[in-house]
Design brief:
The complex is a heterodimer of chains A (186) and B (101). Chain A has 186 residues and is mainly alpha-helical. Chain A is built from 7 helices and no strands. The mean pLDDT of chain A is 82. In chain B, 53% of the residues are buried. The chains are: A mainly alpha (186), B mainly alpha (101). At the A-B interface, helix 1, helix 2, helix 3, helix 4 and helix 5 of A face helix 1, helix 2 and helix 3 of B.
Chain lengths: 186, 101
């Protein structure tokens, strides 16, 4: 992948990632995240992982992001009226994240080169190669994955189902506060 | 000129750090969840870049499994969020103190 193309894609990815954490409206955050994910998919293709790049776009952007979008619509989420949360946490969180990025970048730039492969074998990243690995070396993990997905399916249905008496989950103090006259219910 | 693999790793590190920052800064549960997806993707990028470097397909297979786990996690997590919103009518992580004592 030429350097100018990488630079272009990296800038888009970082802008999208900042859009995820800096925007007020959850829908806008989601669109920025979808931009980043498509961008990472293109980077995958550029790295030779063609199948994975398209899977990334189909599964992440096509399925997971749309699931997020459905939940945001279902809950009718509005933009946050004002910034909330602890200021100290934001301050130290930003500093900590910047330190983490700097540390990891220095580490990766100064890492010893490991056996560089200049030419990849033909068919690298193709569906055939990926499938051959999945159904030979990683067969057990692949089958366990199907059980995981089944469990997640059942768990999601059980969790999101409307349970009678679920209002009891409300904290007792809040119920008392709501019952008191003159108080506002959040 | 081809891009050195270290650049991909640095981009992966930056994306991961932005995900960590989002996790710490934001109080909206759904946006925190999106930050987790961002971190997962940063790690996926590192896997694919290093797999390309050593010329093996194992990194891509791992990324395939990470994607599967992310899908399962998104389904269960969003179900939890719906259930939480139904009982508490808020998505602010500061007000969700069901498990706090």
């Amino acid at each position: 992948m030429p350097l100018w193309l990488f630079t272009f894609l990296a800038v888009i990815a970082i802008v999208g990632a900042f859009g995820v954490i800096l925007q007020r409206s959850p829908v806008h955050c989601l669109l920025a995240l979808a931009l980043t994910l498509v961008d990472v998919g293109v980077l995958f293709v550029g790295l030779g992982a063609v199948t994975l790049g398209f899977l990334q776009i189909i599964i992440y952007v096509g399925a997971i992001m749309v699931l997020f979008l459905f939940v945001i619509w279902l809950l009718n989420l509005q933009s946050e009226a004002k910034p909330n949360g602890h200021l100290a946490l934001k301050f130290f969180g930003s500093i900590g994240a910047a330190a983490l990025a700097a540390e990891l970048s220095v580490f990766f730039f100064s890492a010893q080169p490991i056996s560089r492969v200049t030419s990849t074998p033909s068919g690298y990243g193709s569906v055939e190669d990926l499938a051959r690995m999945l159904f030979s070396d990683y067969l057990v993990a692949f089958e366990v994955t199907s059980i995981l997905l089944l469990a997640a399916l059942a768990g999601a249905i059980a969790l999101a189902r409307r349970v009678p008496g679920a209002a009891l989950l409300r904290a007792p103090a809040e119920i008392q506060r709501a019952a008191r006259p003159g108080s506002t219910v959040r | 000129m081809t891009t050195p693999i270290g650049y991909f790793m640095a981009l992966s590190a930056v994306l991961f750090a932005i995900g960590v920052a989002g996790m710490l800064i934001r109080r909206n549960v759904i946006v925190m969840f999106m930050s987790i997806e961002l971190m997962l993707n940063a790690v996926n990028l590192a896997f694919v870049a290093l797999g390309r470097r050593v010329g093996s397909m194992d990194g891509q297979v791992i990324v395939f499994f990470v994607m599967t786990v992310a899908a399962a996690e998104a389904a269960v997590g969003l179900a939890i969020i719906i259930s939480l919103f139904r009982s508490r009518e808020t998505l602010n992580a500061d007000e969700l103190n069901l498990l706090r004592w």
